[in-house]
Amino acid sequence: MITLQGISKSFRVAKRSAGMRQAMKALFVREHAIVDALRDISFTIKEGEIVGYIGPNGAGKSTTIKVMSGIMVPDRGSCSIMGYTPWQERRAYVGNIGVVFGQRSQLWWDVPVIDSFELLRDIYKIPHRSYAGNLDLLTETLGLGSLLQTPVRQLSLGQRMRCEIAASLLHGPKILFLDEPTIGLDAISKIAVRQFIKTINKEKGVTVILTTHDMSDIEALADRILMIGNGTLLYDGNLDELRGRFGTHRTVTVDYRANATPLDIPGASLLSWSPERAVLSVDTEQVLMALVIARLSEQVELVDVAIETKPVDELIVELYKEHRI
Ligand SMILES: Nc1ncnc2c1ncn2[C@@H]1O[C@H](COP(=O)(O)OP(=O)(O)OP(=O)(O)O)[C@@H](O)[C@H]1O
Asked: Where is the ABC transporter domain (predicted)?
């Protein structure tokens, strides 16, 4: 459904040094630097996938989304999405995609949300019947109700984000590009947005490409992760593969009836100890968890055992470290 082949994009940016003298000098001689935002990016995405596109600040995520949505023309490479080259056949292409930039609004600030929706209906030339059907469905699933009559500037961030997502789906696109859709949202709104993304993917078969810095978004949604750093694609795989690569350590917290002797479990290192609780680090490649639990119950009278895997954030940091970004 989506194929990018050797996409590169550079920006020429003016260099400005601090200080009055440098500012005066810049009036006469402009120095420039080249920023390689994307270097030879290639990947394919199949219909119905949810792909998490991640990477540190300035990695090139938004630039890729802009190229894929046809807003930006790359310097080199090809991109074919549902048979279209996004920046060449924009008019025909945009009917097939929805785009949400979490940091920017596509809604008109001073008018009620429904007015923006109607304008989008006219821009996209959505037939009245399918507009009404889509609007009903989105209003119900995103809980828009009274928000539709409210001017956008009066909405909270979470309410606005739900309206933005609805706006991007009114024309029934097959692909949804989401650039940081949960940025700044509270826990409840994040879960609502994630749930909705899952639903449209499952029920409508919408393919979703999602950029985020929130690894719990990735954990909740993404079948597959593409990681970019310094404009280069560095990882293409799923979360389980990543866990297999970096996530063999488990943290085991054990509560037991008071015991004066520190635990000594072969294959596990003691991170902290008190007469009633110990925290151990276990490398499951070196020792079986069942063996660790068996040894524990020989040494103390167990009250509770909690086993935690490495949080996804830490796995991603390991990946960044491996690639020195
Ligand atoms: N219009 C532009 N003009 C000049 N430089 C740009 C422009 N857009 C992006 N860049 C540069 O290209 C690089 C990639 O930017 P991009 O916005 O794609 O990163 P990102 O991965 O989305 O970052 P973030 O997570 O901070 O949003 C950065 O170094 C950025 O400064």
From this structure: 2-255
Q: Which residue range forms the structural domain that includes residue 64? A: 47-243
Q: Which protein residues are within 6 Å of ligand 1, measured from CB?
A: 11, 13, 35, 37, 55, 57-63
Residue 3 lies in a domain: no
Does 199 reside within a domain?
A: yes
End-to-end CA distance of the chain: 30
- Angle at CA 153, nearest 5°, toward 149 and 157? 95
Per-residue pLDDT reduced to its tens digit, 72-112: 999 999 999 999 999 998 888 999 999 998 888 889 989 99
Q: What is the pLDDT of residue 261?
A: 85
The CA 36 to ligand 1 mean position distance, Å, reads 9
Quote the CA–CA distance of 129 and 15 in Å, as a whole number: 53
Question: In a mutational test of the pocket of ligand 1, which residue from 63, 67, 214 has the highest number of ligand atoms less than 8 Å from its CB?
Answer: 63
State the distance from the centre of ligand 1 to the C-alpha of 99, rounded, in angstroms. 18
- Say whether pTM exceeds 0.90: no
Ligand 1 atom closest to Cα of residue 103:
27
- The total of structural domains in the chain comes to 2
Give the CATH number for residue 209.
Answer: 3.40.50.300
In the predicted structure, residue 251 carries a pLDDT above the cut 80? yes
Work out which ligand 1 atom sits closest to the CA atom of 59.
21
19 pLDDT more than 80:
no
Angle at 110 between CA 109 and CA 114, to 5 degrees: 85
Residue 322 has pLDDT above 90, yes or no: no
User: Which 3 state secondary structure label does DSSP give 253?
Assistant: strand
Residue 179 Cα to ligand 1 midpoint, Å, equals 13
CA distances from 9 to 2, 55, 75, 116, 172 (A): 18, 17, 5, 33, 30
Mind listing the pLDDT tens digit for each residue in 261-273? 888 888 888 889 9
Q: Is the pLDDT of residue 311 over 90?
A: no
Q: Are residues 179 and 192 in the same domain?
A: yes
